[in-house]
Write a structure and sequence with these properties.
263 residues; Rossmann fold; two-stranded antiparallel ribbon; 19% strand; seven-stranded mixed β-sheet; alpha/beta
Length: 263
């Protein structure tokens, strides 16, 4: 299939068959798996997934042209949803946990990821995510505290999932060739994660602090909570440190404590 990519959809089609094969190998697909692929494009990854003979294959492709061609090419081997991934309720894909692959459009990749994270309650709808991001975004997702890339995206991404970098992918592996490298990340569910009542509170806390990332925490935290109330919180946190000095776990604990004060 030869298609002109739509810039409005952030399309960069994976064309490197060796890379496609490697990505699918990392997924370790079994015959009992239901596999979901986001943005299959021209089907390079899809072809490798089909070779592994999973129980079900679901493709989500927003582009009408591509959806029609994928149906012609793969027929009954796939189920295709011609829709916008941001408009789909992910918990309805399957009653069982599924394996997810995605060459995510750069322009909405973080929206997709944060939507999925925020919508997770107690039960994970997936057993593993293998997602491709622009390299600099991936570096922010996996970043550790006290590094330049560490920030809001790192903290929210690592809240409910273990995140692991798999590999960088050269621009020549895509058509049209992007101006930046891509990175494949693996996300797996955490057996336990901090129970925050409303994710908006974590977003407010991280946004407030990282908007002044060079300032000490004490200069920002009292925009959220009363100083006298905060004094009653028994936390081992140095208010003279900077936002990037706090580990993700400290943000989750701090959010939980703040929630008690603002109820």
């Amino acid at each position: 299939m030869q298609f002109k990519a739509k810039k409005s959809l952030g399309q960069n089609f994976l064309i490197d068959k060796n890379i496609a094969k490697k990505i699918v190998q990392y997924g370790k697909i079994s015959p009992d798996d239901t596999v979901l692929e986001i943005g299959p494009g021209t089907g390079s990854l899809t072809s490798e997934i089909i070779k592994q003979k999973p129980k079900n294959i679901i493709l989500i492709e927003k582009d009408n042209r591509l959806s029609e061609e994928l149906i012609i090419k793969y027929g009954n081997s796939i189920k295709i949803l011609n829709n916008d991934i941001l408009q789909i309720e992910e918990n309805n894909f399957s009653k069982e946990q599924i394996l997810v692959f995605g060459n995510l459009p750069y322009n909405i990749s973080t929206k997709i990821l944060t939507k999925w994270i925020c919508n997770i309650k107690n039960k994970f709808w997936f057993k593993k995510l293998l997602l491709m991001f622009q390299k600099e975004v991936a570096e922010r997702i996996v970043a550790k505290s006290k590094t330049k890339d560490y920030g809001r995206l790192s903290i929210i991404s690592q809240w409910k999932m273990n995140v692991k970098k798999i590999m960088d992918i050269n621009p020549f592996s895509f058509y049209p060739k992007p101006k930046v490298q891509s990175t494949l990340l693996e996300f797996t569910p955490k057996s336990n994660f901090f129970d925050i009542s409303d994710v908006k509170n974590l977003e407010i806390l991280t946004k407030t602090l990282f908007n002044k990332r060079r300032k000490m925490i004490k200069n920002s935290i009292f925009n959220i909570v009363n100083k006298d109330d905060f004094a009653n919180i028994k936390l081992n946190i140095d208010l003279n440190c900077r936002p990037q000095d706090l580990k993700p776990e400290q943000y989750y604990i701090l959010t939980k404590e703040i929630e008690k004060l603002i109820k």
